[in-house]
Structure prediction request, 181 residues.
Amino acid sequence: MHGMYAENDGAWGDGQAVEVRFPISDTELPEGLSQEEQTARLKADRETWPWLGGEIVGQCGPDEWEVAVYDERLAQLEDGSPAPAGTPGEDLRYPTCYRDSSEIREPQPEAGKPFSEMTGDELRAAVGAGVPGAARAYAQTHRVLCAHADQDGRAAHWLEPGEKCPDVVLARLDADLEAGQ
Prediction:
């Protein structure tokens, strides 16, 4: 184990863009339901939840991953209140959930074709069209230039397919430590 996460078996890589079913609003359960009835109701409701974009945070155990769900409708401020439109990205907090492999899928472009089945040209077109997850999918199979816009390009370097920029990973760890996570 590495911290709270198990050794990742590679089925869904850390940092990989994915989609999971997640409710846009809290599900209200009527009072008086038995535990069994509550469980059955939540299971049935889950199948109606929309598929939302997210990212694998880490593998928690055999066939279980923690997923951050990035949807603006779910964004909150640090105090837990809904984030108003126009809130800077660094001030947004998103929910996480735990899902097994049957509840995780590759991001689906609008045409419904999985990124893994797209050609390089199709992926580049999806990136250019701003399809969520397309840039990450492209970077999994192609070399990309990591330009470090935050440093005006001074530390630009090439990343091999699937490689993550160590500077970004370290910055993320620093931010998590600062936030007490």
